[in-house]
Amino acid sequence: MASYDIVITEFMDEAAVETLKARYATLYDPDLVDRAAELQDLAATCRALVVRNRTQVRGPLLAAAARLEAVGRLGVGLDNIDVEACRARSIAVLPATGANDVSVAEYVIGSAMVLLRGAYYVTGKVSAGQWPRNALINGREISGKTLGLVGFGAIARETAIRARALGMTVMAHDPFVAEDHPAWKALGVSPASLDAVMGNSDVVSLHVPLTDETRNMIDSMALDLMKPGAILINAARGGVVDEPALAKALKAGQIGGAALDVFDTEPLKADAGHVFDGCPNLILTPHIAGVTAESNVRVSSVTADNVLRVLDGTK
Asked: Residues near 60 by Cβ (< 8 Å), separated by ≥ 6?
């Protein structure tokens, strides 16, 4: 089997791939993530791996990568990478920080508007000659509503900017951002407890990593705090939301809707997905919130530059 300096296991912008190929022997195979044995063999001699969220850079793969110097992450979440093991081996872990913030923020706002309005699920009925206008007259405007952010990092702040421009009031909970941090005042966002965010928001959007502390933090008790009709959006990390508890709350009409872009196990399999059967006002998307034509270019370019700095010895 041929050896490569750089192995790219998931999709990447072609221009960024060509930038890497111009400098180092590079294999680009966006389906390699699904061929574990072959990937492990290729990792044995490579100096850099470039991955998205599905490639698990841990355990056997990481052990096999004896020459590894860098892991370029086409995105920002690191829960698929054993960061501590990489640190112990002086392997640079390189997220594309900031490159997809706008894409995720737009996904959150767009989903909130669709779920609040509730008017976009009747295409088939209208084209069939039905006219369900009376059933849709109670759609809600986003203006005047309260957005609650769980987490107040870069993506949450981009979301807050857009929400405020649309006339929303914004509050956020983040124990790692001091109450005197200038971002609160600059963006017009009020710091609050988690219970206050859950209980007073018309739209709750999650912006936290998956850790022992955040796993299933949105459980039945947290959902019980939400206002009737409130919307939950998770474009952060799967595992933060207790999916069966959310499905139960939706089916009972306890909350008004939800959008999930991330899941406890990805890809979401049919047996796990059945829990959502019959849920009203629900949007499910395949971990795509941060991926647009524009963000893919930015993320790929940042990642290529990050990897080259390490391999060139200029990090």
From this structure: 40
